[in-house]
Design brief:
Elements: H1 2-16, H2 23-44, H3 56-67, H4 69-85, H5 95-165, H6 170-196, E1 198-199, H7 200-208, E2 216-219, E3 224-225, H8 227-246, E4 256-264, E5 267-275, H9 288-295, E6 303-309, E7 312-320
Parallel strand pairs: 2-4
Antiparallel strand pairs: 1-3, 4-5, 5-7, 6-7
């Protein structure tokens, strides 16, 4: 049983090209292929006795695929000799036609061996690239996890230091505390959705929850977002919520926010409306946040448009939702 399992495993590795089969195994497999080809030729002789070389083509192909070009050349040579020397059935032996068929057989075998070996080399190269990419991805994930861990610790340290400094100023601390918590929640959410995606409502609740659930309303059906789109929208929502906390609806006691979304075919439409906030003053030059809003959805054939109205900020987002 162990010997059989070992032979099957060696055949599988050689056939897949993950490892070269041993010389003895390759030669044994080649002889088996030649024997089967000769038997097939003997059976075909009942119909066409003048079929000399055709049954040996599969033998050359399989022997090359398993053992490499050297074994393939040896199999082709042996097949050519067997086809030229052995006769099955009552067939006159014509030297010149058989010589022409032998030349054709040799040319086709050479092309077959070259094609199989070229495919094996390309497949081996692709496997090497895949292994290297997997190692690089594992290393990148390790670095990202370590960076996220350190950022989380630093944010916790900043939170603790500010709480210690502002413990005698509860109003100032209250205005800072929920923003730090919102930032921390967004970081954790981005880390979470980067692997599997999430629902758009959960994304918005995580980002807007620290500002108070009475300050916003969410209108839309449950909608699962693939990982990459969820990360992009998390960054956009965080930027809009931060601006609302600094200058918009969340900076005013009466300010409220309404976020609505609908799906049309594979297109997602999101509307962000702030009302009852401070009046919008003169708008300066576009900063990093504005550039982020404009570019984050481009990979999803989308766009973001933001308007600064007297009633508050109005932002519309449109994008294509990829299949999860």
């Amino acid at each position: 049983m162990r010997l059989t399992a070992r032979l099957i495993d060696e055949f599988r590795q050689g056939w897949q090209g993950t490892a070269r089969s041993s010389l003895a195994f390759s030669i044994g497999f080649s002889i088996t292929c030649l024997a089967l080809a000769t038997a097939a030729r003997w059976v075909l002789a009942a119909l066409r006795p003048d079929v000399y070389f055709t049954p040996y083509f599969p033998a050359v192909f399989f022997a090359t695929a398993l053992g490499g070009y050297r074994v393939g050349i040896a199999t082709a040579t042996a097949g050519g000799v067997l086809g030229a020397v052995m006769n099955f059935g009552d067939v006159p032996s014509y030297f010149f036609p058989r010589l022409v068929l032998l030349v054709i057989f040799s040319i086709v075998c050479a092309l077959t061996i070259w094609g199989v070996e070229h495919y094996r080399s390309v497949a081996a190269y692709q496997r090497d690239i895949s292994k290297r990419l997997i190692r690089e991805e594992e290393y990148r994930k390790l670095l990202v996890d370590e960076l996220q861990h350190r950022l989380k610790n630093k944010l916790s340290t900043v939170h603790a230091v500010l709480h210690q400094v502002l413990q005698n100023q509860p109003q100032v601390w209250a205005s800072i505390d929920h923003r730090l918590r919102a930032l921390s929640a967004t970081d954790e959410l981005i880390t979470k959705v980067d692997g599997g995606g999430c629902d758009i409502k959960d994304l918005l609740l995580s980002e807007l929850g620290p500002y108070g659930h009475v300050r916003f309303t969410l209108n839309g059906d449950r909608l699962f977002l693939p990982a990459k789109l969820a990360v992009s929208l998390a960054l956009i929502f965080h930027e809009l919520a931060t601006n609302a906390g600094k200058y918009g609806a969340f900076s005013s006691e009466r300010g409220v926010l309404q976020v609505s979304w609908t799906m049309t075919d594979d297109r997602l439409n999101i509307s962000w409306d702030e009302t009852e906030g401070p009046s919008v003053g003169k708008i300066g030059e576009a900063g990093f946040g504005t550039k982020l809003l404009e570019s984050a959805l481009r990979p999803f054939d989308g766009k973001t448009e933001i308007s600064f109205l007297k009633s508050g900020v109005h932002c519309t987002m449109q994008c294509r939702v990829p299949k999860a």
